[in-house]
Recover the amino acids of this structure.
């Protein structure tokens, strides 16, 4: 939508290049310095793990790594991440295509619903599924994690589909090729970026898989803390998880590099909606409705059951209000800080090539698959030593959210900067603006809606965060998620229901905004 | 957005930090007694609210998971904000004790609790007891087993739930190692695994699975069942508890306990907090509200529970380093954790 404000320049010279605007230029210091701060912050947990592992000595490290259970669980985690990622890509791409490009009845409705599963905490969904249907193990974990995380793929893919130029497809058709190849090829970067977030999210997941009784790598990390109270094996396992993540991150960036970017302005016209046959329409409608029902309706029904069934039902209104205020406050501050930190890295990732740019971007991802407990303990470690004034105060919790949710924000900034034509920046440069000023005056305003969408995603995710919030919150402060933890921890599901319902309701607001955004310009 | 605004946005984190560091001066409230509680707020919150009067200080409680709070205290080291650590199990207290984070508990407080329910070095003391039990589904099980060793019988194949990562379960395995020997404990674990024991992440999940008819038997702590009955009503909880005879490792009594941090700036108030938890008021609270066993003499258990003496578990220091590490190593060897 923002791109409409820009006069479309006919015969854009940049359009012919594979990655326009990413010449191997020097990154200005004004971008490099803040990006360096972001990267350093994101790498803090890795530093902490290195310190704790180094204390152990090589023997202990080797013992932990070579345990057959360690390898078995690493394989299970990777298998789970692979299956969930593939399913999320399949579901996300199909739904995005149906909503943006087909004549699916009620597609605007389904488009808005498509982002709402983000508002469902995975542990709530998992509990509901286990209690109501008895699914568990690998299958149950795949089911719940796919239903909770396919929006990570849907949102970027829907955005990419929206700005795709129909001319490309027409060229393919005129050459006797099908439409599908061109479309899928252009979707690859956005699907891969969403898939990367899904994969890291699954690797870090603990609550839902524990409820599903499926032991994974994070189970081993939690077990190390819980039995034996030894921080060393946990640290070694954490570093192994970082190494695995690094491999996935590099693989994703290769996908991106080969695919090339379709960075041009808004398409001159919209492609006509693809007309589905009667049977296909009915099938697509049933599938979309079932998806929404399972991902959103089912957990909601579960909470309704808690409310009806538990004697502890009923809530202290003052306490509820306090938790709502605290949740909104820290999550909003987290979204602002995360986005501010992500802007320089996202701009560099979109506009510059070379090792520095790659390293800066990837450093914000490597710690992302670490479970919350590791993140939290690393911040305890650093804050107690170097920033005691913020320890157990809300600023540290806000910093923790920034470390935890940086990749989503960096991805949003990068994608939206990529969408704004670099030629405009070049024009600004030719008029005497410095590189930083050109970005600030031309590109950022164009990218702002996308950047704000990233902030909404962080806001929503931070609201649901539990393990780091438990350890880092100010003493006595409760968020909706920590209250939910307290109530369910003592089996008081009736009392937990209002907190769960409010959490989903509040998280649904940014979810709704994101869903609406995926529909812009959809007729 | 102009350059100036871009820089302003980039400076927000710096500004946030600066505002957090300055201004408020002292980073935490020096006039409060800080309790790190690994026990659930719903269970002990009302009791800890009354602690203020006993200690003469404002009491702030930080709730969390016992093991995670212990890890947090270990990371905090000398800078810990905790004055008192109230733990769900002995293991977390033992970990702090081994890292020399805990101060000695005064002798007169220790003496109120039987020796098997306190740390051998006198740095922590149990305040309430919970018995290991077998929870069973009376709809499908007519006669629950009389010993945990019967659970390896083929008739229970795939029907028993356990939680190998749970601290209370691991204490129970330690007790089995002490009572029946290393070899017997390993054999039991292996036979259980071969008999298709179902692994769960917590006692609560085992209890729920029995109530839902997915399991016939489960190894849990007794009070989880009473909590659930309080929430759902007796008719809403189909399962029943079987207490095992004294001497069986499955009859082990675990404790929730308390320790005082060496680095505490309020040692006097911390001592009063421990005294309060071992006082009649608190012990009655544990008996009546959380349905646990009081550990001081003169306060009876809630009616309906088997008398404490009939459950007498093995005499074993459950928080001892070598014991816990060996138990975890055994569980790892068998491939359970």
């Amino acid at each position: 939508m923002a791109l409409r404000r820009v006069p479309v320049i006919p015969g854009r010279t940049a359009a012919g290049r594979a990655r326009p605007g990413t010449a191997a230029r020097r990154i200005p210091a004004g971008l490099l310095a803040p990006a360096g701060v972001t990267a350093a912050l994101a790498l803090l947990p890795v530093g902490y793990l290195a310190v704790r592992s180094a204390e152990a000595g090589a023997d202990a490290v080797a013992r932990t790594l070579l345990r057959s259970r360690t390898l078995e669980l690493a394989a299970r985690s990777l298998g789970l991440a692979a299956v969930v990622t593939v399913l999320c890509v399949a579901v996300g791409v199909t739904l995005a295509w149906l909503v943006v490009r087909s004549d699916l009845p009620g597609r605007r409705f389904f488009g808005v619903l498509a982002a709402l599963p983000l508002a469902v905490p995975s542990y709530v969904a998992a509990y509901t599924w286990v209690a109501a249907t008895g699914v568990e193990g690998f299958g149950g974990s795949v089911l719940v994690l796919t239903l909770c995380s396919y929006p990570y793929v849907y949102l970027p893919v829907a955005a990419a589909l929206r700005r795709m130029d129909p001319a490309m497809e027409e060229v393919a058709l005129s050459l006797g090729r099908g439409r599908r190849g061109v479309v899928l090829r252009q979707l690859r970067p956005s699907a891969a970026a969403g898939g990367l977030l899904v994969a890291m999210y699954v690797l870090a997941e603990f609550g839902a898989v524990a409820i599903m009784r499926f032991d994974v790598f994070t189970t081993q990390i939690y077990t190390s803390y819980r039995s034996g109270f030894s921080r060393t094996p946990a640290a070694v396992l954490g570093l192994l998880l970082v190494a695995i993540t690094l491999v996935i991150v590099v693989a994703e960036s290769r996908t991106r590099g080969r695919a090339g970017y379709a960075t041009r302005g808004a398409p001159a016209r919209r492609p006509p909606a693809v007309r589905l046959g009667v049977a296909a329409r009915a099938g697509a409608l049933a599938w979309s409705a079932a998806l929404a029902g399972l991902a959103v309706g089912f957990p909601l029904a579960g909470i309704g059951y808690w409310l009806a069934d538990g004697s502890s039902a009923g809530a202290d209104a003052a306490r509820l209000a306090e938790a709502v205020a605290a949740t909104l406050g820290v999550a909003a501050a987290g979204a602002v800080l995360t986005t501010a930190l992500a802007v320089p890295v996202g701009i560099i990732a979109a506009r510059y090539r070379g090792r520095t740019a790659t390293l800066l971007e990837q450093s914000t991802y490597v710690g992302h698959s670490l479970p919350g407990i590791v993140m939290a303990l690393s911040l305890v470690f650093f804050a107690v030593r170097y920033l005691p004034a913020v320890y157990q105060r809300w600023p540290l919790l806000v910093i923790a959210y920034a470390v935890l949710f940086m990749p989503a924000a960096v991805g949003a900034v990068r994608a939206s900067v990529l969408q704004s034509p670099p030629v405009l920046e070049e024009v600004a440069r030719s008029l005497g603006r410095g590189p930083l000023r050109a970005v600030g005056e031309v590109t950022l305003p164009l990218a702002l809606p996308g950047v704000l969408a990233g902030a909404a995603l962080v806001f929503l995710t931070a609201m649901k965060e539990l393990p780091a919030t438990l350890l880092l919150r100010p003493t006595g402060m409760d968020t909706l998620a920590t209250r939910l933890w307290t109530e369910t921890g003592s089996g008081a599901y009736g009392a937990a229901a209002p907190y769960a319902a409010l959490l989903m309701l509040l998280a649904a607001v940014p979810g709704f905004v994101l869903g609406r955004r995926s529909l812009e310009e959809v007729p | 957005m102009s350059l100036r605004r871009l820089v302003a946005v980039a400076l927000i984190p710096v500004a946030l930090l600066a505002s957090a560091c300055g201004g408020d001066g002292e980073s935490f409230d020096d006039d409060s007694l800080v309790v790190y509680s690994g026990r659930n707020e719903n269970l002990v919150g009302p009791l800890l609210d009354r602690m203020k009067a006993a200690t003469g200080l404002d009491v702030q409680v930080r709730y969390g998971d016992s093991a995670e709070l212990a890890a947090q205290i270990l990371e905090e080291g000398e800078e810990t904000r905790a004055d008192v650590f109230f733990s769900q199990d002995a293991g977390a207290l033992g970990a702090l004790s081994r890292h020399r984070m805990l101060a000695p508990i005064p002798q007169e407080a220790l003496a109120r609790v039987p020796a098997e329910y306190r740390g051998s070095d006198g740095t922590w003391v149990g305040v309430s007891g919970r018995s290991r039990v077998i929870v069973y589904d009376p709809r499908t099980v007519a006669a629950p087993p009389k010993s945990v060793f019967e659970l390896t019988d083929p008739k229970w194949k795939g029907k028993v739930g356990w939680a190998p990562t749970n601290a209370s379960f691991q204490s129970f395995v330690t007790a089995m190692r002490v009572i029946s020997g290393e070899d017997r404990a390993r054999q039991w674990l292996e036979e259980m695994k071969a008999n298709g024991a179902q692994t769960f992440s917590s006692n609560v999940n085992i209890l729920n699975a029995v109530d839902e008819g997915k399991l016939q038997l489960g190894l849990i702590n007794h009070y989880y069942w009473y909590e659930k009955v309080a929430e759902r009503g007796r008719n809403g909880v189909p399962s029943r508890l079987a207490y095992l005879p004294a001497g069986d490792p499955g009859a082990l009594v675990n404790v929730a306990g308390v320790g005082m941090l060496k680095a505490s700036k309020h040692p006097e108030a911390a001592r009063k907090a421990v005294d309060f938890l071992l006082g009649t008021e608190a012990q009655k609270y544990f008996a009546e509200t959380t349905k646990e066993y009081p550990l001081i003499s003169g306060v009876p258990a809630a009616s309906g529970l088997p008398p404490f003496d009939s459950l007498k578990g093995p005499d074993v220091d459950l928080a001892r380093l070598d014991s816990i590490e060996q138990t975890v190593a055994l569980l790892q060897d068998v491939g359970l954790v």
